[in-house]
Every structure is written in structure tokens, then in C-alpha cells.
Amino acid sequence: MIKKLMIISIAFFCAFGYSQNTQNAKYVFLFIGDGMGANQVYATEMYLNAKPNEIKVDKLLMNSFPVNSNMTNYSASSYVTTSCAAATAMSTGFKTNNGIIGKSPDKKIAYENISQKAKKAGFKVGILSSVMIDHATPASFYAHQNSRNMYYEISMELPNYNIDYFGGGGFHHPKGKKGDQPDSFENAIKKGYTIADSHKEFNKLKNGDEKIIAINPEMYPSGEFYWAIDKKEGALSLADFTKKGIEVIDNDKGFFMMVEGGKIDWACHGNDGVSMVHEVLAFNDAIKEAYEFYKERPDETLIIVTADHETGALSTGINYATHPELLKYQIISVQEFKRKMTELKNSNPEVSFNTILDLVQADFGLGNSDVVLSLDDKELALLKSAYNKQFKGDKKVNADADYLTKTKVKSIGETAAYILNKKAGISWGSGDHSGTPIPVRVIGKGQEEFSEYFDNTDLPKKIEKLMGI
């Protein structure tokens, strides 16, 4: 009799207890900080805690998550990946060459991605970014193109998979590079999408709305968010789009949501350390929205925070010294300072170098001896050289140039950021990607799957396993 009871008990445990333990993750958030290596996160924590003569580092929310591991990210063609190759691996489980979106290295096979699989399984899907939604990382979660630069083709492909919610930036070339092709937005509308590109339309979005493309009404002409440091009045944040996305696609079956902090990468390409910090903080605010959702459904929700690659070969500390408190004196992005200089040159081309130094001190703190930001002769010479090139030479500084554009003219703003970063103990090895493994921070249902060092091709496989798709 006892033996029979034991057998029944074991059978009951296997039938009931096991199924309870292997219940699928219903709600999955994948946060990708584009260009965000471990040092980008650590520098942000240093900035938050920075006080003279005090060493203290409180964690960002992502670093408080119980699983803390790392992920390799090389592409099929290089140990140093591009965003599209990394995001393709993270969305499909397959490596591809740098430059390709969602296809095999020979460009002959279009890989099925996790968004397509989730939709087939009945989940809702959201794809969000603080840059254009036809940019490399978000595009890799829905598109299949031979080149990441085929922005128009990517935007035309966007509505083909019935993804429930796109949120963030706009399209690069909605009518093609020459402006003479069918409109990408009209194509999406014909396929059942609603475009919400005003505050009123954004605020009206509600649970159950289908096939939404929500675009920030306050952004740069090329389609990306304004810099978080510049705090443009009325501009929606990545956290706003995340909160709204959760509201729109929340349902009993579940959802998959990818959220990209795209301008972390852009700041690192420009070696603008303080703007980078503010982008990481904006990204962290978006994670907080998912975490609030998680707290209500901890047994059903999974939050993964990672990156596609590191940008800039950032390091913290020069000759054992760091002074992150000095970074707080920069109150403007390099891009907006470039705009300020362009406007000044147009209105007053004969402006003096001393006037420029006053503006540099106001926006970067440089020259203020009261806060240990005096400028030595070498630093003054660097700023004078940038001033001469920008105001006295025939070279133009385009504040809105593509973030990957390489120019021979180092602007006053870029020079000021370089000097301030160096004084604060922040140094950059390059203006491009590095090949370092990137951080993975996880909390929620199935978090143990991510506890060991793994490759980015394993990421979607782990998520699909936990979602049961």
C-alpha cells in the first residue's frame, strides 16, 4: 500500500509539479543597448554616484538583476561585428556577414526571425527603438535585405509580417533616396497599419489596438530621437514608448517586445561620453517600465538586457585616476553644440575666440578653475585650431551629418568633449565598434538559462525555448 502511494505521489509530482516548473514565459522583453559594453554601464554608474573624494557605485537597475553573464558577438565575416550582423544572430540564431540584414552570408537564404515565430505561435510582437525603425538593429527583427543601407526596401518590407506595434523613430527615406518612389507610410497604411505621429494620436493608443506604427513627433529631421541630455520640451522618451507598447499589446496569450537604445551607439561613435551616459540612463528608464510590469507577473515575465556590440573601445581611468564628477559640467550634446556654432557662424561669422571660450565654459565647464577645469596651453591650442577651421576656414561642419560620417574637421564641440573626457578619466580607443564580449543581465521566468557565458546565436534559441515557440 505504501509503495503504491509513493508511486502515485511520484506520478502526481511528475504530472503536476514538473508542468508547473516548466510553464512558459508569456511576456518577454529583450532590451538591446546598441554599442553598450560593460564600461558604458560602469561609466554611467560612476557618473550617477560621482562626488569628489568619494568612491561609491550604486547599481543601475539592469545590474541588480540576479543573472549577470556575458555573450560573444562575432559575425560570420569578422571578430568585430556590425549591428545588423549581431542583431541578425540575436533574432534568428544564425551568423551572417557584416552589412547583411536577416539573410545568410551568401544572401540566398532569408532566415525566419523570432518575431515571425512569435506571431505564428499567437503572441503579439512589439519592436521599438530610439532611432529610425528601419535602422539596422530593429530591422533585423523583421526584415531580410542584402544590405543594411537598403533603408527604403526595409521600410517597404516592414508591414509584411503583421507585427502589432512599432514604436520610436521614423524612416530614413520614406519615398526613396531621390524622393520619387511610392511612400513607405502609405504602403503600411494600405496593409492595415495606423500611423500615430502626433502627441494626440500617441496618447489615444489603447490596449487592443492593432498594427500600430507610433513615431516620436519630436525628433531630428533624419528620424532619430533628440539626445536625452538636451531634454527637448515635449519630446517623448524611449520609456514613454515602452510603457505605451506594453499597454497596447498586453494580452492573455503573451508578447515578445524588443526595445533598442540606439543612440548609445551614436554617442560612442562620436566619443561623446556625457551624451552616452544620458542615453544609457534613458535606456535604463525604459527597462524600469518593463520591471514594473514584471513585478505584477513575476512568474510569467522575462526581462533580458544586453547589447549587440561595444562601441568606442571605452575605458575608465587614466593613470589610475578618474574624476567622473567633472562630467556633470557638460550640459549639451556635441551635436546640439555643433548646431549652436553653425547658427552663430551664420549670424556672426567674425565672432572672437574668447566668445567661443565663454560658450565652451558654459556648456562643458572647461576653463572654470573653480571646479578644476582650467585649460592648459595645449588644450587651448586644440580649441583654437578647431575654432580656426570651423570659423576661419572654408570647411563646413554639418551638425546633422550621418553619425558614421568621417570628417577631417574636428569641431569645437568634439574637441571640448575630448578634453573634458580626458580630464574626467574617460578614454576612447576608437570611433568604431570593438570585438569585446558584451554584458547580459536577466530577471524572470527561465532566467537560469542565461547564467553561463554564451554566443549571440544562442540568445533567440533560449528565448524560443522558454516561450515554447
UniProtKB/TrEMBL annotation:
Keywords noted in UniProt: Phosphoprotein
InterPro entries the record matches: Alkaline_phosphatase, Alkaline_phosphatase_core_sf
SUPFAM superfamilies: Alkaline phosphatase-like (SSF53649)
Membership in a protein family: Belongs to the alkaline phosphatase family.
Organism listed in the record: Maribacter aquimaris
This protein's name: Alkaline phosphatase
